[in-house]
Every structure is written in C-alpha cells, then in structure tokens.
C-alpha cells in the first residue's frame, strides 16, 4: 500500500460518512449529480484497500468528484443497515459499490476491490446503456430481447450474483430447442453454469454432443475438466451422505441419484471411468449386496482404479467390516486397509477408527 501511494498521484475523495440516505439524495439533487456509494465493514481488508489505495488515485478521485456525490456506509451500523434495506439482496459481499441517480433509482452495482482502470471502465460501461432499474422493470414486464437479457446478465456478473445469472440465462435459453445451446450467443450466456448440474437434461445433452460443444467452447479440454469436476463433486456429496447416515429412507433417496450419475459417467470424458468404478461400489452398498461390494471394491483396488479419498475408503471398509461373514475376506480387507493406512502416513488417523473396528471384528470371528 505504501509503495502504491508513492507511485500514483493522490487526491482525497470527498466521501460523506454514514449520513442518512435521504440527506445524501437531497445533496445530490442540489448538486445535480448522481450518487456513488461504497459499502464496507470495519473488518474488511479489501474495503480498506479500496478506500486507502484505489479511491485516492487522482484518475479515480477526479472522476468520482466530478460525477457523483460520494458516501460510504458501514453496513453493520444503523444508517448502513438502513441503506442496505433500500436495495435488498444486492449486497452479497463487501466491498459493494452502488450508483444511483439523485432520486435513488439504481443505475449500477459492482462488487470487489478492483484496480483503478477496471473500476473506472466498469463504472463508465454501467452508465452508458440502460440503467439497472430500467432493465429490471422491463424484464419483470416480460421483455426477453437478447440485448436486454445480455445487459441484465452483465449486471449480475458485476455483483457476482451467480444464482440470478443462472436463472435469467436459463429462462432465456429454455425458450428455444435444446440444440440452440450450440449457438454462440446462447452458449456465451449459459455456458459458464449449465454444466454444473449433472442431473439436468442440459448436462446430459452436453455429454451426448461433446464434439460439437467442444467447438463452441473452443477449449475442449477446459470443458472436459469442468464436466469431470462437477461429476466428481456430486459423487463426493453422495459419499458424504452415506458416511453420515444409516437412515433407510435417506439411503433409498440416494439410489436414483447414483443411477443418474452412473448413466452420465459412461460418456468418454477423461477420468469418468474412475468415477464409474466408485459409483458401482456405492450402488452395491445401497443394494445391500455385500459380496458384490467386496468383489467390485477389491478388483478396482487391485487395478488402482479408485480415487484416493480417505473418506470414501473408510466408508467402504466400515461397510464391509460390519457385514462380512467370511473370515478370509475380512482378513483380506484388513490387510488392504493397513497397507492403505501406512501409505497415508501422518494422515492415516483418518481411518484409525475403521482399523479398530476391523480388528475387533476379526478377533470375534
């Protein structure tokens, strides 16, 4: 920060400090200016960087002072909370900056401690086209023109609102046949999120037409990695749920999800076969077929075909130790688990309780 302050010409921005919002608007009306609002908290380090390093840079301070009445709000204090209530669900994290007209109509929102050039470019771009409050109004009234939807999505990007971005983009794309996802304009809107739900028809459609989507995305390997990461994540979620519950109804609810993930994992994507192997063992566990669990698990282990996740292995070994009745199979599991524990080294404590369970079961056989 000291280095930055010594390099850039400095000029302090005239910020009103936690003044009532009505008073700020009256001052803006009198000055015939818009309002720039910086929302922060006392403990936010990026907020301090924004206030102490970015705003004082002359290129930024000249623009802010010439265009706006500026005010800063600590959103944990009374007037800051009152301001946040005026624009609900807009502050997803701090720092968040608002631009309004002198009557409080919301023109633009952006989030994050951006560098000077990025901050100014974003502010100017936000004020060049239709303001946010008009976009929101037209969208609520049913306007679904491509240019309006694109600008609406850009506003969501500025504030990092992934939930509403996905909803608006998804609603727009849903108007058209599924193969419209190959259209660059539509893929440009939905491509950043549509691969995130492995249970969706869109995810399946992408898998069925990987080659075409690879051309639209222009980076096939990036798309392939995203698909793998999402399927990997959902499989881990299933593992966690199985490790945390023995409730029959909860386990039964996992069966159709495992079937859907297995169906998705059959497509030729890098590392999908390993996920298939893991899911096949999980499926046998949910079916309460102990012999099949043992056989599949040991075969995949011998082939080094399972993801090296202690939680997953602990769940499977615990299942087998609890249900196996054949001592030779029990001993084979014990030998394999001890070898795995040694390989984990100092992280071997992750399976200590399962090792203890196995030893107890073997002693009682």
What is this structure's SSE topology?
Layout: H1 2-7, E1 15-17, H2 21-31, E2 34-40, H3 45-54, H4 58-67, E3 68-74, H5 78-86, E4 96-100, E5 106-111, H6 116-128, H7 132-140, H8 146-159, H9 162-173, H10 184-190, H11 201-208, H12 210-217, H13 220-244, H14 248-264, H15 272-286, H16 290-302, H17 310-323, H18 327-344, H19 352-363
Helix pairs in contact: 7-8, 8-9, 12-13, 13-14, 13-15, 14-15, 15-16, 16-17, 17-18, 17-19, 18-19
Describe this structure in words.
Helix 16 (290-302) crosses helix 17. The protein is elongated. The chain has helices at residues 2-7, 21-31, 45-54, 58-67, 78-86, 116-128, 132-140, 146-159, 162-173, 184-190, 201-208, 210-217, 220-244, 248-264, 272-286, 290-302, 310-323, 327-344, 352-363, and strands at 15-17, 34-40, 68-74, 96-100, 106-111. Residues 1-6 have low confidence and may be disordered. The chain is built from 19 helices and five strands. It has 365 residues and is α/β, with parallel strands linked by helices. Strands 1-3-2-4-5 form a five-stranded mixed sheet, with helices on both faces.
The radius of gyration is: 28 Å
- How many distinct helices? 19
Main sheet strand line-up = 1-3-2-4-5
Give me the oligomer status. Answer: single chain
State the secondary-structure class: alpha/beta
Weakly predicted, low-confidence segments: 1-6
- State the end-to-end CA separation: 68 Å
- Helix-strand topology string: HEHEHHEHEEHHHHHHHHHHHHHH
Helix content: 55-70%
Task: Give the beta-strand count.
Answer: 5
Q: Based on CA inertia axes, which overall geometry fits?
A: elongated
Main beta-sheet annotation: 5 strands, mixed
